[in-house]
């Protein structure tokens, strides 16, 4: 007798687009047994995301919680929309199920919907913290702070599993209560094999990307947002070029700070040494073209890009805001408060005096993030409700 096909509902909030959390979610979807488990998505915007076609190709569905409103979700968020999203998700769970699990990717933003999951009788309810800071353009006001605390309070009360991609991410949204047996640090799944097994060399990769191979290439992958701190990186790189001229900075990403980054580069006179590649660039190719990786983030829940770079054997320079769980032996941590000139001097000293081949990657640590290791365990949690750590 064949097993009954089960469904999980991911509550992702925004359309499933390019980004660290979304990419990790898609690694989960690619890795599960599609004969046993399918994943649907609940979002609160009508726009089509980068991964929507792929989701539907597996048999998954994408539901906009505000589909039956005039604004479709395209309006400034308010508390009434929180209430509506709970009602809408409850109807979705009752009418489009059955679902064996609900997985909330952004509890601090979508935490109220766990009420709907509880009322609908969903047996596995996962609240998953993936970051250590929420960016607010004008700073959080009192109402927003209280609303976020309430969302997290309901998650802590009603979730069957409280997950964090790192210890810091866990603490940021769910506090420090180590006695709570529902709490687990669950690694983000990353398809590291495609980075470790890449046969591309620097010459081939640079040729395909149309960039010079005769320079020392520094790579940064991430959305062009304040959190990723590319403006500081441009300043740091400008200081580096004062010492050496044979350097090139490669950025891969997209986002609201695109034009500001370009303007910043012109102001520092390095626009001819800055290459900004499309967010859809194949990352193993960009890494093959690069000699070093830099991630000066203001905050990081984990740092998936650091895992990918290390799997490619590339030495990384990261801010000390990046979490230690992502260190497999090839990360040098630097404090942001030391400033751009300190970063420039330190990085160039390491470039000129240290051999990456002398460093060892912690393969036992590495395997804990590999998709083929993580995803079957997550699938087991969805289907049985067991703890991730006991599998």
Structure description:
The protein is of the alpha/beta class and 391 residues long. The chain has two domains: 6-189 and 370-390, Rossmann fold, CATH 3.40.50; 193-367, Rossmann fold. The protein contains 16 helices and 13 strands. It has helices at 20-31, 52-57, 79-95, 107-110, 114-119, 142-158, 167-174, 193-196, 202-209, 230-241, 258-267, 283-288, 304-311, 340-353, 363-367, 371-384, and strands spanning 6-13, 37-43, 62-64, 101-104, 124-129, 161-164, 183-185, 216-221, 247-252, 274-277, 292-295, 315-319, 331-334. The protein has a seven-stranded parallel sheet with strand order 3-2-1-4-5-6-7, sandwiched between helices. Helix 1 (20-31) crosses helix 16 (371-384), helix 10 (230-241) packs parallel to helix 11 and helix 10 (230-241) crosses helix 14. The longest helix is centred in the first third of the chain and has 17 residues, at 79-95.
Task: Summarize the entry for a quick read.
The protein is α/β, with parallel strands linked by helices and 391 residues long. The chain has helices spanning 20-31, 52-57, 79-95, 107-110, 114-119, 142-158, 167-174, 193-196, 202-209, 230-241, 258-267, 283-288, 304-311, 340-353, 363-367, 371-384, and strands at 6-13, 37-43, 62-64, 101-104, 124-129, 161-164, 183-185, 216-221, 247-252, 274-277, 292-295, 315-319, 331-334. Helix 1 (20-31) packs across helix 16 (371-384), helix 10 (230-241) runs parallel beside helix 11 (258-267) and helix 10 (230-241) packs across helix 14.
């Amino acid at each position: 007798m064949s097993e009954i096909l089960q469904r999980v509902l991911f509550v992702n909030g925004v359309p499933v687009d390019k980004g660290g959390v979304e990419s990790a979610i898609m690694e989960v979807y690619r890795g599960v047994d599609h004969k046993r488990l399918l994943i649907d998505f609940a979002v609160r915007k009508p726009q089509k995301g980068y991964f929507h076609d792929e989701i539907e190709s597996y048999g998954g569905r994408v539901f906009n919680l505000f589909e039956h409103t005039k604004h479709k979700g395209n309006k400034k968020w308010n508390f009434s929309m929180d209430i509506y999203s709970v009602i809408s998700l409850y109807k979705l769970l009752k009418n489009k199920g059955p679902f064996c699990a609900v997985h909330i990717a952004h509890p601090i933003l979508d935490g109220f919907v766990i009420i709907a999951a509880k009322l609908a009788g969903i047996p596995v309810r996962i609240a998953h913290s993936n970051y250590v800071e929420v960016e607010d353009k004008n700073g959080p006001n009192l109402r927003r702070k209280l609303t976020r605390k309430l969302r997290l309070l309901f998650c802590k009360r009603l979730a069957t599993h409280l997950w964090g991609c790192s210890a810091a991410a866990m603490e940021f949204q769910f506090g420090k209560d180590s006695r709570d047996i529902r709490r687990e640090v669950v690694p983000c799944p990353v398809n590291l094999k495609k980075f470790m097994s890449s046969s591309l060399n620097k010459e081939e990769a640079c040729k395909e990307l149309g960039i010079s191979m005769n320079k020392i290439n520094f790579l940064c992958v991430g959305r062009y947002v304040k959190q990723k701190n590319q403006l500081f990186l441009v300043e740091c790189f400008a200081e580096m070029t004062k010492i050496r001229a044979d350097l090139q900075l490669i950025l891969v990403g997209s986002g609201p700070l695109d034009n500001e980054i370009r303007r910043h580069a012109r102001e520092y006179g390095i626009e001819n040494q800055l290459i900004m590649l499309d967010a859809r660039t194949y990352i193993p190719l960009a890494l093959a073209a690069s000699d070093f990786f830099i991630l000066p983030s203001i905050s990081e829940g984990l740092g998936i890009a650091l895992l990918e770079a290390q799997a490619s054997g590339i030495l990384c320079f990261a801010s000390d805001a990046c979490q230690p769980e992502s260190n497999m032996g090839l990360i040098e941590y630097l404090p942001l408060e030391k400033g751009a000139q300190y970063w420039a001097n330190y990085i160039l000293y390491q470039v000129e005096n240290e051999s990456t081949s002398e460093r060892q990657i912690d393969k036992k640590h590495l395997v804990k993030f590999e998709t083929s290791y993580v995803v079957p365990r997550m699938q087991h949690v969805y289907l049985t409700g067991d703890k991730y750590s006991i599998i």
